[in-house]
Amino acid sequence: MISVLQVHVIDAAVGEDLSRPGPTVTYDAATNTATFAADGSARAAAAGRYVVWSVVAEAATDALFAAPVELESGTQLMRCDRVDFPADGVAFLHTHQGPGIRVQVKGLFAVETEGARQEIDTWGVWFEGGPDPVYAEVRGDEPAAFVRVMLLPIAIQGSPSIRYVRDEDREKPKSQRYTVFLDEPLA
Length: 187
Fold this sequence. Notes:
The chain has about 190 residues and is mainly β. It has one helix at about 165-170; strands at about 1-10, 25-30, 35, 50-55, 65-70, 75-85, 90-95, 100-105, 110-115, 115-120, 125-130, 135-140, 145-155, 165, 175-185.
């Protein structure tokens, strides 16, 4: 079934309703935490910036970014994690086992995929389809980080989704560090 994965970045007041229809992941930038709600309910615990991803039938007109995704009931999970890089960090050419929307929360990043290069600034957004190879690197002199939500096969719950394209990159030291906030099966 084709659904839509969408993201909103919201500067919310304390107690503000952040709810969306469908399964929702809410990331609190101030506390660096994320929560999942199968029913889409979410509320700002404190005033601050929140990133809210949701799986819906149709994209909201106010979504920062939305992409069609294939949703197979009972076989996928929503993973929310944060990936941190040092100032000279590189993500070697790789793929993932499912699509996802990323939001840059710190620093500058360059992403190359499908023959195009994007420069991503703080609070910028990009989509990776999963099977398409991606190369990314930090730009500038500061560390960088992004948070993302991916739709992944439930069989990899608790395991990395990254696959390196080139044999020589598999054994190289990796500069990125992952913080997995949640791996929630979708009903």
